[in-house]
Amino acid sequence: MKILAVRIGDKYGPEYETYLERKLPFEFIWVREPIEENILFQWNKMSGMNLDIDEPICVIDIDILLVNDYMEIFNYPIERGEFLSIPSWWSDKGYKINGGFFKYYPKDCRYIYDTFMADPEHWQKHYIENGTTTGPVNGEQYFVEEQVKRKLQLVTLPNSWVTRWGDQDWTWQFNMTEKYREVTGNKWLYMDKEFHPDIKLVHFTHQTNYITNRPHQWEDYSLFL
Questions:
Q1: How far is residue 183's CA from residue 178's CA, in Å, rounded to a whole number?
Q2: Which candidate among 50, 65, 98, 101 keeps its CA 20 to 30 Å from the CA of 87?
Q3: For residue 167, what pLDDT is reported?
Q4: Is residue 115 left, alpha or beta, with left meaning phi > 0 and alpha meaning psi from -120 to 50?
Q5: CATH number of 2-224
């Protein structure tokens, strides 16, 4: 199985590649340059849907931590016609998935790639302009979810396996813990320097991650190497 990840620009350094390659025993496809000059940052993840291979691939964001028995995520079985993602249980936008992890058969998703590449300028602005999200670059997970539902079966991993996280103040972390408790029944999320045993992927997804909210800058990051 192959892993595709995007690291374009200087927002994240090569240490993010090193971390993921040490954690995952798979072949990596690193996208370090735009597939076309007008394709912005994380939208280049669409390139995985243009691969001519007959096995599933995993597409991941690099601002993640992999904890506990995280290999269960990558080894989760899918069949042709299925599209696997992690859930976005913390969101109230009406969408189900988080863009930090996808698993799919590329040939099943070629139509999604073609739809995007037919008008990338439109799609890269669409979800910002309609108020679904904020800029400067965002919205690819919403595009993917809408397109998947046209032809494929959308499958999400258990809510208890993933969380959003960051180095915000204790109030933000408390509220995130309360949401996690509501959707999973687990009584805690992060306590005594440990994530709940059910957690397998931690996504540092927040608008502040353009400045301060990156995994390597979190004070407890070194505990999870």
A1: 9
A2: 50
A3: 72
A4: alpha
A5: 3.90.550
Q: Which of 172, 171, 220, 177 is nearest to 199 (CA)?
A: 177
Q: What 3-state class would DSSP assign to 7?
A: coil
75: region left, alpha or beta (phi > 0 left; psi from -120 to 50 alpha): alpha
What is the reported pTM? 0.95
Q: Where are the domains of the chain?
A: 2-224
Task: Look up tokens 């180095």; give the residue.
Answer: 167
Q: What is the pLDDT of residue 219?
A: 87
List pLDDT tens digits, range 94-141.
Answer: 999 999 999 999 999 999 999 999 999 999 999 999 999 999 999 999
The SS3 call for residue 118 is: helix
| Residues with Cβ within 8 Å of residue 170, at least 6 apart in sequence | none
* C-alpha dist (Å) from residue 72 to 44, 68, 107, 212, 218: 26, 10, 24, 30, 25
The Cα–Cα gap between 12 and 110 comes to 28
Q: What is the pLDDT of residue 211?
A: 44
